[in-house]
Amino acid sequence: MELAIEIKNVSHSFGEEVICDNISIGFETNKIYGLLGKNGTGKTTLINIIANQLLCDMGEVKIFGKTPTEDIKVLDGLCIVREKEFYEQEYKVKDMFKSYSYFYENYDHKLQEKLCKIFEINPKLVYKKLSRGMKTLVSNIIGICSNAPITIFDEPTIGLDAVNRQEFYNILLDSYVNKKRTIIISTHLIDEVEELLEKVVIIKDGRVEVDEYIDIVKEKSYYITGRRDDLSKISILKDKTPTKSFGSNLVYSYYGDISDEDLELIEGLDIDLDRMSLQDMFINMNKKGEALYE
Ligand SMILES: Nc1ncnc2c1ncn2[C@@H]1O[C@H](COP(=O)(O)OP(=O)(O)OP(=O)(O)O)[C@@H](O)[C@H]1O
Questions:
Q1: Which part of the chain is the ABC transporter domain (predicted)?
Q2: Most buried among 1, 62, 126, 134, using CB within 10 Å?
Q3: Helix then strand then coil, % of the chain, to nearest 5
Q4: Closest Cα to atom 5 of ligand 1
């Protein structure tokens, strides 16, 4: 297993606030990752550290086996796509494409033309006159056409309508199938990326909560429903708070393995075991569950 990015024991704080707390992740080559986390969990901070745009307090990041200090050229293999890029606002879109294309040795100009037609972007327009969604599309087109060995999309569908969101992900997948590379999509809109992802990394409270193949994540995500007294016999639910209750029935959301003893009990008792979607798993994992009113 070759690693495109190796994050080793990275910690970073802004003032007193710990954002990354000893994070270690290996992003493999030629896989599509979802980097998931609630607002403010540090996804962008981590991306900035990967891109060497922010120096972490501790730990190190290797790109294809080397830190940027060892070889600054490793950063050439990286394309970061985000809304707040430092684009020259007065440039025409076509000039922007041209200047960005120089950074990427495998930039696909033909695909760029096709994508402009599909997304109805007029390359002759001045960038600052584009709508918010169109600006996002320009960034995404650069990201797709870069063919960079590592492409990171930070919230790539901000401002896009439902049609363009779907179209963007379809095109991204086609492009990936045509040329395999490491793609990381940082988002909290999980439903729309679920089908695309091969691996999922979930960040919570500055730590890596999940780093797993999506099929395994799905296999380990359950809703467990039954009567309160039956469910009290299931050991994995001890000390857990139910997600919902209706009458004498409770629903628990559970992520993890289920022991054979618990499975036997579940089969023997009147308990339902249902799969939980990635989105629901993410929401339940991050739920605070505090009452709004006393
Ligand atoms: N330059 C900075 N100085 C101080 N605090 C910062 C700075 N950049 C980010 N933060 C703080 O670090 C935390 C993580 O921010 P970050 O932008 O990395 O989160 P995120 O997971 O990308 O969030 P979102 O999903 O909302 O974009 C936030 O509390 C944010 O206020």
A1: 5-230
A2: 134
A3: 35, 30, 35
A4: 14
